[in-house]
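Second attempt. The first submission of Transcriptional regulator had a stray character pasted in from the spreadsheet, which I only caught after the job came back as garbage. Lesson logged: always re-copy from the clean sequence file. Corrected sequence (215 aa) follows.
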Amino acid sequence: MNYIKHLNATFQKFIQDSRLNPTHVSLYVALFQFWNISRFTDCFYINRQEVMQLSKIGSKATYHRCLQQLDTWEYIKYLPSHNPFKGSQVKMLIFDTTSEQALHQYETSDEQAQVSNTNNNQTIENSKQTKLPKNEMEVIDFFKSKEWSATEALKFYNHYQAIGWKIGGKIKIVDWQASAGNWVLKADAIENEKELSQNKDNLRTTKVKDYGQPL
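This time the job returned cleanly.
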């Protein structure tokens, strides 16, 4: 698969497709980057928070709508997962400037993971370079600089150290500091849900009180 020809053909389709808006294009480019990181495999796993961050989409509803539309309009094949620990999968449908869509029926191309020349291979290798922490103290120092919990820093480090610094066990983390930010956001959301649940329980009572009596 020649990814330069693929991109040229894709942008030509973008020009001719009046259904698309900038959000669709931004989302597609973000998905292409994760496809690039996974070395143009047939299918690859995605993390919603990271795709939204890269594509600059702030609304979950907008993200899911554009993802489904790209699937319906045959730019990608979206394979959602209901397992939060597994992640959803995406299959990029291949376009070429000299032929029809190669994967219209979702067949695997024999040249899917190959690039046309040495320079392209070097470009992919460079894009795969990851930025990972040297040790847990670097993570703790970073969390402290952001006024985040040191306990969460250890949880974050131990979790990703155990799974080889990969998202969903498949995609290598490109920037661990960005992933740390997502970790803290998720931890805060869980904590808020717990507080709301506790407050609801505190409002319940089985005692019969006479509110006419003086305090």
